[in-house]
């Protein structure tokens, strides 16, 4: 059944009708993904790499403007039935991603941000329904650029390059070069010149910021160089190409819109936007974080009475995840005496203590503690909250390694001082021998992505331990309380 254009807009100039449809898509995207966008803003201003997402729509807009100026004639074939079918399928997929997959990856929500992939699908599908498949497909490369709001690839590349704000800025400059090439690429030569110019100007801006503003926020490095570089280069090339002629932008006739019937389209897109807005994002179940300005981080934890530190190792790879000033210190604690409640032969138990310190507390939400361990062949239980005294609440898990055939018990908590945060992880193994295997800290982000694909195909059951046996819960609870007291009491007395 055909649907008519809104009578109020049917006689308007095509420019205003285009503005109306894009404004509708923008408003409905805000309605459908308000929580996601608010989360992006909150993380961005907290120092997370996700702030780069805010620059992508502007780069895509510049690229789209250049592609639109090169619009060529097209066949007068406008099959609205095909538009509705393709758009409907895309909207259903967006609904499934936000409603099913986001919840399936709740523990990695801040890392992979599948809701942003759903948002991209919603925008593309809405454009297909409101404008038609043929006009939308003409901007295929622009949509591909806009797809970079899905942050997983960006995070991997930046972490591989060192994880610094300068690495993030460099990646964004390369993305801006692609946007400039699309905007000015009337010929391949002009596209290459625009991309090269953007890289040179952008990296020059990064160098200036490195010299004069080395401590500027991460978001400044991911916003200023790419946006300023692509704007300067695109404007310079536009003015050069129009030298001696009028400089009026978009000085060409606007063709009538292909999709003339949108009443049904508006109804469909609005219904999906409302449905998407009703789906809640995963909420953190982590225990509350104690804040005590008397705490001091960056050194090995003080061993409590009855325990001695037998080995200390520091790892540098965490700087790629948590910032260049972050630290990961591993301590091996050995009980001075055996306890028959902890070992039937009364052998002194060994506990591994890993403490990660960062100036970006938000990074602990983005990178869960299992990011620094290879968990590709393990199954983890749900957490159980443990009161560790002094207003510190920890969470205990069991981790079954199906390759080594051992079970680890893990107790973790996070606390903060005035400027930084620390995540402490205690690990025991059910093999009490001196050479028992413990998980080694390593940059396991890429390896753990294999687990994400497995979960996508087979569900959470392959990584969940549904029948946990917290064998060392008693020992870890006692040691955790003693460790917390050993750090807080001297710090509070000294302050």
Question: Taking all residues together, what is the mean pLDDT?
Answer: 88
Residues in β-strands, percent? 5-15%
Order of helices and strands: HHHHHHHHHHHHHHEEHEEHEEEEEHH
Question: Which of globular, elongated, flat, extended, rod-shaped describes the shape?
Answer: elongated
Q: What's the β-strand tally?
A: 9
Number of contiguous helices: 18
As a percent range, the share of helical residues equals 40-55%
Structural class computed from helices and strand pairing:
alpha+beta
Spatial gap, N to C terminus? 76 Å
For the sheet with most strands, the description reads: 9 strands, mixed
Low-pLDDT segments: none
Work out the radius of gyration: 27 Å
Summarize the structure.
The protein has 495 residues and is of the alpha+beta class. The chain has 18 helices and nine strands. It starts with 6 loop residues before the first helix and ends with a helix.
């Amino acid at each position: 059944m055909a649907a008519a254009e809104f009578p109020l807009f049917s006689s308007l100039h095509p420019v205003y009708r285009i503005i109306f449809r894009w404004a509708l898509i923008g408003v409905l995207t805000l309605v459908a993904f308000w929580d996601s966008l608010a989360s992006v803003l909150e993380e961005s201003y907290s120092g997370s790499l996700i702030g780069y997402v805010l620059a992508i729509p502007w780069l895509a807009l510049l690229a789209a403007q250049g592609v639109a100026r090169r619009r060529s004639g097209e066949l007068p074939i406008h099959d609205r039935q095909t538009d509705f079918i393709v758009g409907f399928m895309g909207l259903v997929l967006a609904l499934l991603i936000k409603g099913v997959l986001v919840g399936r990856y709740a523990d990695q929500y801040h890392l992979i941000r599948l809701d942003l992939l759903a948002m991209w699908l919603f925008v593309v599908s809405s454009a297909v329904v409101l404008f038609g498949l043929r006009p939308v497909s003409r901007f295929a490369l622009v949509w591909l650029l806009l797809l970079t709001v899905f942050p997983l690839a960006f995070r991997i590349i930046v972490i591989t390059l060192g994880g610094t704000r300068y690495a993030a800025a460099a990646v964004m400059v390369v993305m801006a070069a692609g946007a400039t090439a699309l905007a000015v690429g009337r010929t391949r030569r002009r596209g290459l010149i625009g991309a090269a110019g953007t890289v040179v100007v952008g990296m020059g801006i990064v160098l200036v910021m490195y010299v004069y503003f080395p401590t500027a926020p991460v978001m400044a490095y991911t916003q200023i160089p790419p946006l300023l570089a692509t704007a300067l280069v695109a404007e310079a090339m536009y003015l050069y190409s129009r030298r001696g002629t009028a400089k009026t932008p978009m000085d060409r006739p606007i063709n009538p819109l292909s999709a003339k019937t949108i009443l049904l389209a508006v109804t469909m897109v609005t219904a999906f936007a409302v449905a998407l807005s009703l789906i809640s994002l995963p909420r953190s179940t982590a225990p509350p974080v104690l804040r005590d300005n008397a705490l001091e981080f960056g050194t090995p934890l003080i061993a409590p009475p009855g325990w001695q530190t037998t080995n200390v190792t520091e790892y540098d790879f965490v700087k790629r995840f948590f910032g260049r000033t972050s630290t990961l210190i591993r301590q091996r604690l050995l009980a001075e005496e055996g306890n028959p409640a902890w070992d039937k032969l009364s052998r002194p138990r060994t506990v591994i203590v890993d403490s990660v310190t960062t100036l970006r507390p938000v990074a602990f939400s983005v990178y869960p503690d299992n990011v620094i361990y290879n968990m590709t062949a393990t199954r983890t239980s749900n957490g159980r909250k443990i009161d560790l005294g002094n207003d510190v609440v920890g969470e205990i898990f069991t981790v079954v390694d199906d390759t080594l055939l051992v079970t680890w018990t893990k107790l973790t908590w996070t606390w903060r001082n005035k400027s930084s945060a620390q995540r402490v992880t205690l690990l025991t193994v059910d093999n009490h021998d001196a050479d028992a295997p413990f998980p080694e800290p390593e940059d396991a982000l890429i390896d753990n992505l294999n687990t994400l694909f497995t979960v996508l195909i087979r569900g959470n059951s392959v990584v969940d331990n549904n029948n946990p046996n917290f064998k060392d819960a008693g020992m870890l609870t006692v040691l955790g309380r003693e460790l917390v007291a050993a750090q807080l009491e001297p710090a509070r007395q000294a302050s």
